[in-house]
UniProtKB/TrEMBL annotation:
Residues 68-167 form the FecR protein domain. This is FecR family protein. It comes from Orenia metallireducens. Residues 270-284 have a biased composition (Basic residues). InterPro entries: FecR. Residues 222-269 have a biased composition (Basic and acidic residues). Residues 222-284 are annotated as: Disordered.
Amino acid sequence: MERSFRVISYALLFIILVSTLFSLEGSANNNLRLRKIKGEVYYKKTFLIFSSDWRKVDSIADVEVGDLIKTLEGSKAELIFGEDARVLVKSNSKLKIVKNRGGKVDYKKVKLSIGEIIVKFINEGIKKKEFEVDTPSAVAGVRGTLFSVKVGKDKEVEVAVRKGRVEVGNSAGEVMVVAGELAQVKSKRVKAKLNKLGSKEQSKWDEEKKWLEKINKWSKEVKAKEQKEIKEKAQDKVTDKSNYENKSKNQGNNKEKDKNKDKGKDKSRGRSRGKSKSGGRKDR
């Protein structure tokens, strides 16, 4: 009995410790928001085999790594990754936030199990950034800026790229999807097939015209801010270099002055010794 109690205590302690580490990671990168656009939007907390009840989003909610998100029929939401990405979650969709890690590389990842999302990703600025969408049949690694991912009930995946490039890969291989192309993946054992975006796919983008206009404005503001930061950092480097060169020059001049002073002192000492010797001879 005592042994069983000890095992349970250790297990609970381990769960609390790991949970704390996960919460610290989430709080360190706590720039995640879930905004309801219309309809019914829900999210819930998950950890290992545990999960909370679904919580309804009235307007906007703070979310973190590990959270599940779902939208019902006729509903729509926006997942906000700070100033790095915006994800439009369309109706009847379900996804999980897998990664939101900072450091030398800003790495974001979501797992879409069913439904459709549109991703606007800003891959610019000083820091390197990566964004991935995991699905049952393939992984879409972002190299571009604007694309959509759709997962059907049969687990067939479609990746449409409007701007930039997206790498779509699974166990069968990888393909690069560029702007104006659509990649279709039947299963995780079948390589993606490329086609041109047709009128049907284009009409889907037109349906989200209002959101796209808003996102385009946001994107321009963020890019302008990041370009300003890049210029300021470059200017700081020039200033630091100039200060270093001036400091080195001043140090060189000071050394030369000290050297000349030492030479002057040596000459003075030589003259003093000469006078002392002359005075000694006269006394004799």
